[in-house]
Amino acid sequence: MSSRFFHGGDSDSESSSSEEEELYGVEGKAEDSEEEESSEEESDSEEESSSDDEGGPIGASRFMKDVASSDESDDEDKHTIVKSAKDKRLEELEGTVRLIENKEKINDWAVISTEFDKMNRQVIKIVQSGTIPKLYVKTISDLEDTINETIAKQKTTALKMNASNTKGFNAMKQKIKKNNKDYATEVDKYRADKEAYMESDEEEEAVPVEKVRRNRVQRIDELDAQIDEEGFATVGRGGRTLQYTPESILKHLRTIIESRGKKNTDRGEQIRIMEKLLEVATTPYQKIRVLLTLISTRFDLTSTSTQTYMSQEQWRSAEREFSTLLQILEASSTYVVTENADEWDDDEKAPQPAPNEVFKIPGSIVSSIERLDDELTRSLQQTDPHTAEYIDRLGDEQLLYNDIVRSLIYIENLKKMENVETPPESANRIVMRRLEHIYFKPTQVVTTLEENTWKALPERLQSEITPRGAVKDAAPLVQTLCNFLFQHSEGILRARAMLCQIYFLALQDDYWRARDLALMSHLTENISTFDISTQILFNRTLVQIGLCAFRAGLCYEAQGVLQEICGSGRQKELLAQGVVMQRYSQVTPEQERLERQRQLPFHMHINLELLECVYLTCSMLLEIPLLAQTGSSPDIRKRIISKTFRRMLEYTERQVFQGPPENTRDHVMQASKALANGEWRKCSELISKIAIWDLLGKDKENVKTMLAAQIQEEGLRTYLFTYAPYYDTLSLTTLSGMFDLSVKKIAAIISKMISHEELGAALDQVNDAIVFRKGVELSRLQSQIVTLSEKAMGILESNEKVLETRTSGMANAFVRNEQRGDRAGRGGRGGGRGGMRGGIGGQAGAARRPGGQQFGGGALGGAIKA
């Protein structure tokens, strides 16, 4: 027994070792990677055999025979079968194929997709040491046929799958199409004669690659030839230098596109590779594909790095490449870039379209130009506006505007092609971008911008929307672009076009047309439903209308419009000209980042100091006479036009010592006190000394003259309100000498005050005097009625505020401006344009409101309220 044990043990070990030597002796000439894998298989087989020994009897009983073992004596003489690594891999492949075939029967495409990836990994290891397994060729060929049959069933019988199977089936459609291209020859052989192909067991031996040994000098010479001018050579895996040829361009692009979005991807290296590919590209198709990928990769630099905006160098490179792309597309009418095109999957060869055929390349010209615009805006936001770098960066706007016009011409030409479908909003988006670059600029700047653009474009390019030479002025250009958007767009684009046109009209001092467009557009009613950038544009337009009204001498209208923005104390935030962090506000970093992204570049800002000066000056001209009127007549309900102005005035009056004015606010407050005291000359002098009026340019002197005339009139009104209780009669000649106004002008002002029941007096035209009527002391009942009316008006105002909060807050500036009444002769105070003087809303016999507030808006105001 013992001798048999030792003999059997020796024979087993010797036989197994000899078999292993024979097996691995043959395989020993393979590559190093296969040797490592075979060693791993050996260790696995040894572990399995050891585990089998451990699972049996132990001790002497292990070698003793019983009755059952006597019947199986032949099994003891069997030797352990050792399989090569190649055979084991083939068995694993067969198991995977069986699983795929079983899942095909029940249409379980989710599992098929997973096992297909596993099968490809297994085949890679087998192919390294031999040829392609015919079982694999059969499987991928049958799998493609099954996929085609399933697609046909879906079209005819409406075959339905669950979500996971649908996802796996769609993935398999893409995988099998791309995978079978690499084995097209073998698949064709199999499909030609399936039985003969599978019956032939002859395996094609791998053709050994003859390695040519080169000496060191030859290797150095070869490396020097591959080094570029800068002294660097692009090295791939294994230390081999990469070769860039026209035939390999599409393969390199495929590799770059597949790595997009992955971590640890060197975008800079990819850009350098594509720049070399662009140099070796020969056909228009190759250049277009490289440029599209190169431009998008440059944009990825910003999103994948910590940098918040593109550097000027990268931006100019992207702009230059985009301009080159447009030039190639304009020169070659065979290739077009559209968003709804199918991708060309064959990386081995480029497409060969017929002479009159148009080949579509997937891409978006509109998205590229929008991204260029956004990156330039982002860089201007982050650059200090008081440096030369900002001016240099702002000079790139001419290049961008050239590309915008050129892109618009290209989109127009695409629409003329029969077989090319372009999204209808493509032209609208480009026209909107073009409009946003010119609506806020002076006419001279817009004219120069247009002239330089058409000089830079080739003579053959022509636009149907804005033909070359047809639009020479800024006003017709803005009108043409806005009309195009009104006709072909809707929603936000149309609203933004309307706001841009209103802004431009207000900038050109066309107040009445700008106001009418703003009222007819009804944007004040639903502006809260638009996005934040459109709301910011609405606020800017509102402010520009107010400034336009002020330049036109309509201080009452200007104050009513600017009240919404300046009365809130959040001018910077509402106009997107700065981030104001509240003391107790809880703002997340993400919200703060979004808020900073919405900020406008410095060259688009509206001067906030000028805005405050205009608002305070208009408030002064309205509030000081009102304060004098309510102070002399206690029975009149105390109204407040501007709470902000009242608060500033109260703060100034509480100061014990007041020095000379230092800033704009000090000038206006001291001028207000002088006007309240009847010193209109001092008030006019203080207002004219404000340095911010110099920003008005050529309108500066006209504005100062207008303000001096307004101060004279308001000074007269304030004087009459203040000292009326102390006079029985007052000579018009005396008033003319005090306020440097003609007797006729003074008579007109007083007549208006009397007709509006602001002043209890009568004109004695024979003696050129005013006869004042003394007020009658109110009874207790009358006083209670006055108190009741005041409370009712307070409730009415609170209801109006609730309505404003629900309907957009600042949306009813124009409506309330019309409701507050126009006083004729001073920008619309009194009976008003289009209104009746018989009371509120033109109803005769109704109780009149004090202070000339009987105007109800006329026909336009009634239409708005309805």
User: What is the overall shape?
Assistant: elongated
Arithmetic mean pLDDT: 77
Distance linking N and C termini: 116 Å
* Uncertain stretches: 1-78, 202-212, 228-233, 237-241, 821-866
What share of residues are in beta strands?
A: under 5%
Widest sheet: strand ordering: 3-5-4
Helix content, binned percent: 55-70%
Q: Class by helix and strand content?
A: mainly alpha
Radius of gyration computed on alpha carbons = 44 Å
Task: Specify the biggest β-sheet.
Answer: 3 strands, antiparallel
What's the total number of strands? 5
Provide the fold topology.
Blueprint: H1 2-27, H2 32-55, H3 67-71, H4 73-76, H5 85-105, H6 109-128, H7 134-157, H8 163-182, H9 184-192, H10 194-199, H11 216-226, H12 249-258, H13 267-280, H14 284-304, H15 312-331, E1 335-338, E2 359-362, H16 365-382, H17 388-394, H18 397-416, H19 425-436, H20 443-456, H21 474-488, H22 492-507, H23 511-521, H24 523-526, H25 532-551, H26 555-566, H27 571-574, H28 589-597, H29 608-632, H30 643-654, H31 664-676, H32 680-688, H33 700-723, E3 729-731, H34 732-739, H35 743-755, E4 761-764, E5 769-772, H36 780-807, H37 813-819, H38 858-865
Helix pairs in contact: 5-6, 5-7, 6-8, 7-8, 7-9, 12-13, 12-14, 13-14, 14-15, 15-16, 15-18, 16-18, 16-19, 18-19, 18-20, 19-21, 19-22, 21-22, 22-23, 22-25, 25-26, 26-29, 26-37, 29-31, 29-33, 31-32, 32-33
